[in-house]
Write a structure and sequence with these properties.
By secondary structure, the chain is α/β, with parallel strands linked by helices. The chain is built from eleven helices and twelve strands. Strands 1-12-2-3-4-5 form a six-stranded mixed sheet, with helices on one face. A six-stranded mixed sheet has the order 6-7-8-9-11-10. Strand 8, helix 10 and strand 9 form a beta-alpha-beta unit. Helix 1 packs antiparallel against helix 2, helix 3 crosses helix 5 and helix 4 runs antiparallel to helix 5. The longest helix is centred in the middle third of the chain and has 31 residues.
Amino acid sequence: MSMPGWVWGQSVAWLLVHFYLWARLVRGTTPPGSAARRAGTVLAMVLALFIPAALITPFVLDIAVSRWIAWPGNIWYGLAIYLLMLLILAEPVRLVAAVLRRRRAKAARPAVSGAPDPAKRVFLARSIAVTAGAAATGIVGYGMVTALGPPRLDRVTVRLRRGGPRASGLRIALVGDIHLGPMLGRSHTRRIVDLLNGTGADLVAIVGDLVDGTVEQLAPAAAPLRDLRSRYGTYFVTGNHEYLSGAEEWIEELRELGIRPLRNERVELPALDLAGVNDVTGARQADGPDYARALGDRDPARPVVLLAHQPIQVNEAVRHGVDVQLSGHTHGGQMMPLDLLTGWAQPTLAGYERFGETQLYVTKGAGFWGPPVRVGAPPDITIVELRT
């Protein structure tokens, strides 16, 4: 697997974040030189290595080994995110309390320079630490139950401006961001395949980020995809994670499993044209999206549905007269309120939106990346029913 530069950037950033967590959760709550402070400091140093280890080891170790690091590392990753946010939210409380303590000290001893009462400061620090820890644990526990549970089956109706009765009623089972890897394996795939087959959809669209690992590592986990059944078959487009996992090898593996990759190309189905473009990150490997190749020289009377991993690709879809674009990538934000950051980078976080004559639908995805936590963004599979 190819390790991206952001892995090192995130690793260094989280080492620095742990210094802040140590300052608030250990130094601020324990007496200097105490056994509790020493133990807390050692624990903080160990935990500081968990997230970098979870980020780096899938790229350098066998998946059977890295999963033993991925689970504890990524659970702590989720807890650390919410601890960080909650502690930062508590900073104004600390500031106000410090100002009030100083004022009270000066009022009680006007002739002496007032000094804050250390006992009151420690009590507040411990209260904040316990509250933040309990809240973060509750949020992450809820988020893990959601993330590890079955994907929700959503349904949406999209009306086409052309196509006639042949296209009306066609149902597309949309799934993305399955993220097979150290934490999600064959049973995850089997559950998704059973859900998809149970929908009776006319075709299945997998819109990228299927894997976080090589074919050698994950072929057994992906094998149940061979059992997908629908009238017009299963189609796939690459996501950014495929380009970290050996996209060419996965394209060939999926063909062996009976899945049709759409690599800047389209197929003419009886009711419409189905096109697919590569993910934008493929451009770094000379395998980026080519909209003209996928969408050019087609019958303008026929509707066209475009599979593209990232919602931001809708800008090109509009220019090429696409009727409907189906995407993933965002995970619906995965962990509130981090969805605000994702929303800045993509035109749509999840669900339906219209861009001129082009309609966009974004699935929240059926898996997760990093922390096995979903808050406010449950995993989903969507049945997109076309109507004219």
